[in-house]
Amino acid sequence: MAEDVAKAHEWHEKGKILVVDDNATNLELLSSILVGRGYGVKAAVSGKRALALISGFQPDLIMLDINMPEMDGYECCAQLKANPETSRIPVIFLSALDQPMDKVKAFKVGGVDYITKPFHFMEVLARIETHLKIARLQREMERKNAELAKKNEDLIQANSRADRIFSLLSDVLPGTVLDGKYRLEQKVGTGGFGTVYQAVHTNLNRPVAVKIFQPPPGTKPEEELERFRLEGISACRVNHPNAISVLDSGVSPEGIAYLVMELLEGHTLFQELKEKRFLTPDRCSQIILPICEVLQVAHAAGIVHRDIKPENIFLHTTSEGEEVVKLLDFGIAKLLGDSGGSEGPALTMGKIVGTPLYMSPERLNNKPYDGRADIYSLGVLLYRLLTGHLPFESPEGDVMAVAVMHITMEPPPLHHFNSLAPKELEPVIWRALRKNPEHRSTAAELAADFRMALTRIDEKTKVPPAGISLPAVVEVATLVSDTGKLKKGS
Question: Closest by alpha carbon to 210, among 176, 242, 249?
């Protein structure tokens, strides 16, 4: 029988093809050509026989006629595509029907190609080869995607296990003595790839804060450990009363990496903003000016903080009841002398380091940057302090949309969000938010601009309204007679 034409032929690696045609001459001719070209071939004289034959093997491609007894090619293809085991096999229709709607119907039921009889052998072979290549590429891509999904799932599970371990560790650490000298008393916070504990230096009986390294989920622990180490280096190089002091660092015999810092009392600027819609210019100055002073020292030492935001500004209350502004978390600070002025591949490959809502255009574009990137972030912060809003916001919470706004758009005026915000402060903010860092203020210039603007605001509130002299004001403030007429003062 015609369906047995190529049964004895070996199935070659070049590809296995099922040829379905009720014309025995066409079937034998096409099968012999394909075998001669190195393909393994099986044949069937109807759609029903093709479905029965295919249950015993998986061809790489099917050549399918349309007009056949028992079941036509359209129905055969539809059943093949409905079966998950055969749905991905490419089907090329090979038919004498040459009307456009015949071809449209073939594609609608799942065919990948349509060749009209009489056909040219070289065209058929070229199309077969092309669709086999496409099918192999799709299978390889699916295999790699499946492997990637499996690796991602394994990574998620590994991170979940690591998180549980660190969570359990953070719960059992209080009461233990770390590295023989720091007694951990209670957990006071988590963030910046670490958990912070209130502790006591046992030898000095001094209260301190100890930050225990904990790599964030989905990161490389060795890279995060290096960042953790850089936090200590960066903070130690910024010697300023408004920067948190790092007193010690190390790795305990148990393998726990830690930083020892001064213990702070109070709350973050973020917490204050949650309670108040916006701050007065005077209150802003109490916060912004000390941060400018810290950044002057940091930038002079070649350090860019890279994450200026309300969560990283702590309003510390001293034992005497005074407030001291402290800049926290130098954990992602950039040491410009170590790796140039761009994000670089060492610790930031493939991800943004920092908070995009406060990030400068040059950093979002992965261009070289310096301390003026921090000034842009400080400008964003000042805008928020005065208005209660960020200069760029997305109603849908789309961080990438906000990033594009930082690069391409100018912020709305302050009175758009807060009618009480003084216009005198707008030039200060606009200069800090210049897209081009060359035109942006430095930390010292921002502080000077802010102080000058505050002076103008104070002078404005003390000057009498225009057109009214001081004597005239006194003259108007006279007694009124019983008749309702003003008595002129003497």
Answer: 249
Write the DSSP string, 443-462: HHHHHHHHHHHHHHHHHHHH
Phi-psi region of 354 (alpha: psi -120 to 50; beta: other; left: phi over 0): left
| Residue 278 CA neighbour count, 13 Å, CB half | 20
Structure tokens at 249: 């660092």
The partner residues of 200 in beta bridges, in order of sequence, read 183, 207
The packing angle between helices 281-300 and 372-387, to 10°, is: 170
Host H or E run for residue 153: helix 121-172
Question: What pLDDT, on a 0 to 100 scale, did the predictor assign at position 172?
Answer: 65
Other Cβ atoms less than 10 A from the Cβ of 450: the count is 22
C-alpha torsion sign, points 427, 389, 216, 244: positive
Pairing of strands 91-95, 113-116: parallel
Is 449 part of the annotated catalytic residue set?
no
Q: What is the widest separation between alpha-carbon atoms in the chain?
A: 133
Q: Where are the domains of the chain?
A: 2-141, 173-262, 266-462
Q: How do residues 177-197 score in pLDDT, each as one tens digit?
A: 888 999 999 888 776 567 889
**Which is catalytic among the residues 307, 329, 374, 449?**
307
Q: Which CATH architecture has domain 173-262?
A: 2-Layer Sandwich (3.30)
Q: Which of 110-119, 181-190, 215-224 has the lowest mean pLDDT?
A: 215-224
The Cα 83–Cα 401 span in angstroms is: 43
- Mention every residue, 6+ apart, whose C-beta is less than 8 A from residue 133: none
Calculate mean pLDDT across residues 107-111. 95
Q: Which residue, 102, 103, 88, is CA-closest to 135?
A: 88
Domain 266-462's class? mainly alpha
**DSSP labels for 76-92?**
HHHHHHHSTTTTTS-EE
Integer Cα distance of 264 and 245 in angstroms = 10
Q: What is the 3-state secondary structure (H, E, C) of 89-132?
A: CCEEEEECCCCHHHHHHHHHCCCCEEEECCCCHHHHHHHHHHHH
Strand partners, 314: 268, 326
SS3 267: strand
Q: What tokens does 176 get?
A: 């233990």
Among left, alpha and beta (phi > 0; psi -120 to 50; other), residue 179 is left
Say yes or no: domain 2-141 is CATH 3.40.50.2300.
yes
Angle at 259 between CA 370 and CA 340, to 5 degrees: 20
Residues contacting residue 11 through CB under 8 Å, at least 6 positions apart: 40
Distance CA 292, CA 444 (A): 7
Specify which residues 197 forms β-bridges with. 187, 210
| Residue 452: per-residue pLDDT | 96
Contact 75, 93 (CB under 8 A): no
Cβ-proximal residues to 55 (8 Å cutoff; 6+ apart), any chain? none
DSSP state letter for 329? -
